[in-house]
Structure formats: C-alpha cells, structure tokens
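S1.2 Input.
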Amino acid sequence: MANIDSKRRNGVVIDTKAQRKRVVAVKIAAFFLIATLLHVCLSGGGEFQLFYERPSRTTGTNVEYSQKTTIHGTSTSEEYPLVSNSEAGQLDSSKILDWAVVGFGKCGTTNLGRWLSRHPQTRAPSGELYALRANLERFKTVMRNQRLKPSTQNEIQDGMESKVYPLSEIKVGYRCPSEVQLPGVMRRMKDNFPDAKLIVSVRHPVTWFESFYNYHVDQGEFPLIRRSPLDMIGRISNSVHVQSTEHSASHMYLARMAKTSMEDPEERGLLQAKGFLPLFDSPKAKLNPIPNKVFLLETTQMNDSDETRLDALRQDLHDFLELDAEVPLPPIPHIRPNENKKPRYVNANFTRIDICDDEFIPVREELMNIARNASLWYRRYFLQSPDVVVTSREHLVKDIFEASWMKDPCDLRGSVRGAGSAMSQK
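S1.3 Output.
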C-alpha cells in the first residue's frame, strides 16, 4: 500500500509531502524577496525616491522629526532636534520653498548650492534633489523638514555661531541642475511655489559640451553618450541626460519661461536650434510663463579675478534671496567636485575629448551657431526683463556675452589647427 504522503506518477513514486515543503519554501523566499525590494524602494533605493519617517517619538508637546532622503542616488539620514507643535505650526503651508538652483548641469551648480547653504539663515539638502519631478507631496515634506534642521558647524560662518533665526525667517532651497529643462517641473514650480527665487548659471556652449562629455566618460555613464561627438549634433533623444548639441542651447530652455514678449521676428529667429521643437506656431510648443524671479549668472563670474566684482556677486545674491542684512554670504568656495575623482570605468570606445581637435570642427560649428544666438538673445531680450536679475551687468553684457560668447574659445586656447582657427570668423 502506497504511503499517503506519496503517489505514483508514470511509474515513479513522488513524495508529495516533500513537494509541498518545497512549494512553501519557494513562497516564503518570494515573499521575503518582494519585501526586501519594497523596503529598498521606499527607503531610497531609487534616484527619484524620497522617504519621510513619521515622528518616531512624542514627549509632551515636543515631536522628534527624522528624515531620510535620496539625494542624487545616495541615501542619507538626518536627525532633527525636538520641535514644539506650536513652533511647527508656524510653518506657513504656502511658504515651503524660498530658492532653487535649477540649471544648468556642469555650470557650477554644486558650488552654488554648497555656497548658499553656508549662510546660517539658509537650509538645503546636501546633494541634488530630484523629488519635485517625481512626487510633489514628498517634496513638500522634505522642504518643510529642511526648515526644521539646525545649521551645522560647517554651514555657519566664523563669528556667527550664535545667530539663530525663527522658523519663519529660514530660507529653504535645493539644487537640481536639470530642472529648468523640464517643462513639467517648471509648471509645478509656477503652480505651487510662485514666489520661490530661481538661480540659473549658464556656460559657453563649446566648453559646456566638452565638460559634459568628459564628465560622462569619467563617471562611466556610457549609455548617456553612446556615440561619437560627431553624431551628437542636433536632437538625438528626448532625455535631458543624453548629450547632444541641443542641450547646450540654454537660451531655448529659458525662453520657455516667457520672460520676453517673443513678438519680435528677430527674437524668434534667435530661438532656433537644430533638432529643437519650434517654440511658436506649433501645437507642441511648450511655453510656460512663470512668475518666479530669476538670478542669471555665467560660470566665469564665480571665478572672476576681479575682487570687486566677486564682492558684488556675493552682495547681489544675498539681496536677491533677502537674507539677513547683518550676515553676509561667505566667500565663494572654489571647488571642482570631480577634480580628484578617478574614472569609475574604462572603456576603449569612449575616451575624454579635446573639443578643439580638428575632427570636432563640425560639432563646434553647430555649438558656435547656438552660442551667437544665445549671446544676442540674452543681451537684447532676456536681460531686459524686470524679472531677471544679474550682477555686474556691464561686465556680463560686454565682456562675456558680447566678447567671449561670440568667439570660439578654442581660438583662445591656441589649440585649433588648420581651418579651425578661422572658424570664429564665420
């Protein structure tokens, strides 16, 4: 007589009890695998995830806040001090975000964010924050809790350690260098934070393209380049992270803010770039008028050898953010975040480039067309808007946009050979 826990199938005795045990074991393993994956996702395992832990301890009228945020792919945990419910209630639901560094990548945004965070009145996550494009409510939660975070020793200037500000006077911000390139994010900014001050840094298209490409090579982010620079002319992808000459056209993205009338045919002619969707007379046009004030600076202004202009930049940004008049912004840190980093990976098919090599003349020709159009548009239109604030206006207009941006920077390097040396004269 066959055992009740076994049966014969095709002449083979099968232990059904053992089979059931295996099925149960597989189910348990699957359960723990799914639970682990969910935990990783919720606790910051993905670049766009933010996780807020509810108050972990309540004592009387005090609440202990803690926060975990995923910032540029790195999960960090910060503990906030006990804050009374009455003090937390002072947080105006409409005053969540005060400032944001929203553009552009490889234009000094890391330095900008770190610099502004060193003032004792400001608060900001330590890295790039991608939450606004992913989950508005979680973004608001993180910003509220940044306001509760105390200044740490390295964020406070010498001699200002005792300066403490009420929650209502704290200036909360964040940085994410590709925000300005995403119309959906700018719409959320307009609809939810119309009073937030936006800070945008731009860079000469030729040097930007070289820096961005070499950054991807050093980081081993080969899928974001995938091809020779000669194949990156125009639009090659809808993603702002996949490099092309199109992404060097900073003026095209800023034009979508509709800070200018855009009725002048000359202006419309300047807002053209190979591969860009037309901004006008098209059902796909993505103009996005926003009320936010914009502080525009060019990257070379942060490394200016003229101390008077550097002091002016500190004061103008200080005033733009409406910081405490008695506490100035500290000196600008001159840090190159990736200067001492070794490449993550080595791939013989992708190596760093010198954009001034003759083989890249076609790329530079397109980049210089963009640079000249951008230069004219910034000078004649964007800088005329009352919503746009700059520092050292005359220097920015004449020495940077009118002089530098109208010329190929490779001429200044003395690296252009043959036909390339005359390219800026075209």
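S1.4 Remarks. Confidence is low (pLDDT under 50) at residues 40-86, 415-426.
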